[in-house]
Amino acid sequence: MVREPSGEEMLQAVEAHVARRGLTTRLTSPGTADLTWQSLLDFRVVRSIETRDERPMREPGSRGEIAGRPTYTDIRAYRVDPPTDPERHNGLLLVRRGTLDEVLCGDCHGGTNECAACGGRGRSDCPRFVDCAACQGGPDACWECEGTGRPRTRRSTASRHPHATAGERAARATCTRCRVPDVACPKCRGRRQLDCPACKKAGFVECEACEGTKRVTHQECQGTGRFTVWTEGFVDHTPHHDKERQLGRLDLRRSTGNAGDWRETVLTKATDKLPDDLEDAHRELVTPRLAVRKGEVARRVTLRHLPLAVVRVHADPHRDYYVFPSRTGIEVASRPTRERVRHFAAITAAAAVVVALVVALVVAVLG
User: Which residue, among 82, 41, 40, has the nearest Cα to 269 in the 3D structure?
Assistant: First the structure.
């Protein structure tokens, strides 16, 4: 429907609705029904708020892509078109004219420094030998001399482990220190130690930090030995949302949302006017929200409203009839009055209390 239905048309629609339920009464007659308007509102506004400022910048390396940015003299006077869609976030980075420069890094030499981990030697100290993993570098290195090279007796050829089986003696080796056969750890042969696998008995390994180069990359300048400095100006367009909604009863929202002929108005300028058929109460509610905000450069206001009348039929006092225009005419939905809902809720609560008391009594008697 193009125009808003009148109160009389709303009453006539309710009259036809209740007649189908067997209630015949002429609701347009005085004293038969009460009609109040409780129209629904869905108001949303998104603004694009612009912020501008400057900040000193410093980045490692040469100018690169910084040199290709737009330049400005006064960030406040630089012209930037407002976004076509205030819902989107936009940002623009600029360079203040005359501030772009390159400076040498004062904390390195050509992008590198002497390696602190190895003191510029390119290598780190490492033990030449490590304990044998098989005998743990202990007395079991040799059953005869215990890895000392001094046998039990000068002429001894017998094992210090007389109870060792032939297989156990066969698994042993000749000690390189005391020369007694079948008594030494087969891994170190009585030496207790093995050559360090990391340095191959050299006593040093390549420094892991500098990989033997004696110098490391200066991380702050990323090895470039210089910085690009400039004053950066930025212009940001950030969306800010606001809304006001009055959608009525929860149990009615599906009906009004699906069948209601909502009137929609979209405003994109601060000078755009609200629709003429908007109720005064809604107009007073949304008008303050239409004020221009600081930094606002674009907006989109979406206002949807649905004329809704609530009719209380005197002959049917326990139900309310909600009447609103639909795309095919006038829609009527009936719901129990709020007083009726509270009445039944109180009865249900009282019944629950009675049941709880009965259960408690039965438990006490049986106990």
Answer: 82
- What tokens does 113 get? 């420094």
Contacts of 312 (CB under 8 A, 6+ apart): 33, 34, 320, 321, 337
| Across 68-81, average pLDDT | 96
Contacts of 76 (CB under 8 A, 6+ apart): 52
Query: For residues 193 and 195, what is the distance between their CA atoms, to the nearest angstrom?
Result: 7
**Under a CB-based contact definition with an 8 Å cutoff, are residues 323 and 37 in contact?**
no
319-325 vs 309-313, strand pairing mode: antiparallel
pLDDT digits (tens, 9 = 90+) for 130-188: 999 889 888 889 988 888 888 876 444 445 565 567 677 778 999 998 888 988 999 99
Q: Count CA atoms closer than 13 A to 172's CA, side-chain side.
A: 26
- For the chain, give the mean pLDDT: 89
Q: Determine the pLDDT at residue 155.
A: 47
pLDDT tens-digit map of 54-64: 999 999 999 88
Q: Are 331 and 259 in contact (CB under 8 A)?
A: yes
**Tokens encoding 235:** 């212009």
pTM for the full model? 0.66
Provide the pLDDT for residue 162.
Answer: 58
